User: Which sequence fits this backbone?
């Protein structure tokens, strides 16, 4: 069992013994230039050392770190070998090399005598192809700098997807030239009357480019036919009046048609299904979104549409999933959309019920695989990062079976959530952060860390118990060893009492 501070746990870790590699100002980096730049920046942040190029005229016996894409192994895989006289990282592709560097960064240890890296042999590859985090920018707006800082944190833990929840009852956050009133009339709003905002198309491209530089794909979401009260403010003809029977007010204000909604209740809003104006609106927004988004996925929501009649909901899901497929993208929807009878072939379902599914949730989720699609697992009582970590937390909510401790966030197995799903049916794991109580990057850090590390291990590492160290006791030790790295990366993580931290 490895005691090295590695999260997520690599597929295979060997400790060959021998003296460590000494990291000092004489070390030079050779090989892939882009990866070398990543490692130099990480080393400078972690240690203050500014490592040079191997070609800079260093003495022949100068210590060397070699970074190479050799095309060997599965996608995103890497091999890391550390000896006293050198470090070598070889990878199947650029992403694998990036992840190998993140692992190397976790191994760097400081002491009174300097910086070292312990001897190690690591052969690593991800379990799932899709390893996502989600940031809700609709309930509270988060600017480009906050989004890019969040995705950098996620990428360091080998997440490769950033899902942006761009619209909800409170506001619409992405500029669309085909429907300019969406941001003009709603973007100033947020939960509690807090300041709003939106992304210009240039802002959105900056986020996408920054994500790509960290080997992350952006998955944008316009949520509909529910969660669309803001749409009705911008384009009243396409939105139904609030349906208040049976909606979840969450203790907040009652929504009024045409007026900004500042609460956190859900389930009251709906588009007008079947109207030509609604069909044109949906076609406009997803057609423009497809042109702005280079990644393969467009998420159309489909959750908590309690204000939409079941037959209308099914018709909407069928029509919208088909539209997105015609645009050359893979449709993604929350698991409720599995109630529709004719999902577009290949539509991906995102499951957000509990580790033990609520009634009907598993059946709806299996419908996506019956339609040739796959499933993203986001069980709310395990990986919803907006849940309070304990009863005393000032941020977060508790509706997902109460507070979610770090231990509970870790002790679940993706293959065991939905009966009847094979390993191949699972596209991956995503950890969402809804922002009803989240206003700043410090708030994001306070809720996501260290539980985001548990989600990273569920997404990347071998299944629970399938590898030495893939246990709660090992994880809490390993994540505790990341305290110095996270501190130097300026991550404002709370020192969870469930962990013995190295600080």
Assistant:
């Amino acid at each position: 069992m490895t005691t090295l501070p590695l999260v997520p746990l690599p597929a295979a870790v060997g400790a060959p013994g021998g003296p460590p590699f000494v990291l000092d100002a004489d070390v030079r980096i050779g090989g892939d230039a882009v990866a070398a730049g990543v490692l130099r920046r990480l080393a400078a942040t972690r240690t203050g050392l500014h490592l040079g190029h191997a070609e800079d005229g260093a003495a022949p016996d100068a210590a060397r770190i070699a970074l190479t894409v050799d095309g060997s192994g599965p996608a995103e895989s890497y091999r890391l070998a550390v000896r006293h006289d050198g470090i070598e990282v070889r990878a199947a592709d650029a992403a694998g090399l990036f992840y190998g560097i993140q692992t190397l960064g976790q191994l760097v240890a400081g002491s009174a005598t300097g910086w070292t890296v312990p001897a190690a042999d690591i052969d690593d590859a991800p379990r799932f192809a899709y390893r996502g985090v989600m940031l809700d920018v609709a309930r509270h707006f988060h600017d480009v700098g906050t989004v890019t800082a969040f995705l950098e944190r996620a990428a360091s833990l080998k997440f490769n997807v950033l899902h942006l929840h761009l619209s909800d009852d409170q506001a619409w956050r992405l500029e669309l030239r085909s429907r300019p009133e969406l941001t003009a009339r709603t973007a100033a709003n947020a939960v509690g009357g807090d300041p709003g905002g939106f992304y210009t198309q240039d802002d959105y491209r900056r986020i996408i480019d920054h994500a790509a530089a960290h080997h992350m794909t952006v998955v944008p979401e316009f949520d509909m036919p529910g969660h669309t009260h803001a749409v009705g403010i911008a384009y009243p003809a396409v939105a139904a009046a609030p349906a208040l029977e049976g909606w979840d007010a969450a203790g907040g204000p009652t929504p009024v048609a045409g007026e900004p909604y500042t609460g956190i209740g859900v389930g009251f809003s709906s588009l007008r299904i079947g109207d030509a104006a609604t069909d044109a609106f949906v076609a406009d927004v997803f057609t423009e979104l497809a042109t702005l988004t280079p990644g393969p996925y467009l998420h159309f929501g489909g959750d908590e549409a309690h204000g939409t009649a079941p037959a209308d909901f099914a018709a909407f899901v069928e029509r919208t999933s088909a539209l997105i497929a015609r645009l050359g993208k893979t449709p993604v929807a929350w698991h409720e959309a599995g109630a529709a009878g004719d999902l577009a072939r290949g539509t991906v379902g995102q499951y957000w019920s509990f580790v033990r599914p609520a009634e009907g949730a598993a059946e709806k989720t299996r419908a996506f695989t019956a339609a040739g699609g796959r499933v993203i697992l986001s069980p709310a009582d395990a990986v919803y990062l907006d849940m309070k970590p304990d009863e005393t937390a000032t941020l977060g909510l508790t509706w997902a079976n109460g507070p979610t401790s770090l231990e509970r966030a870790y002790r679940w197995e993706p293959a065991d959530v939905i009966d009847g799903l094979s390993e191949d049916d699972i596209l991956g794991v995503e950890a969402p952060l809804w922002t009803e109580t989240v206003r700043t990057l410090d708030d994001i850090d306070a809720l996501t860390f260290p539980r985001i590390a548990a989600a990273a291990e569920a997404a990347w590492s071998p299944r629970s118990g399938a590898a030495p160290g893939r246990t709660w006791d090992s994880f809490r030790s390993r994540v505790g060893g990341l305290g110095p790295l996270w501190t130097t990366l300026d991550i404002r993580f709370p020192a969870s009492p469930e962990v013995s931290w190295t600080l």
Notes: The chain has two domains: 12-124, 130-466. The mean pLDDT is 96. The chain has 15 helices and 18 strands.
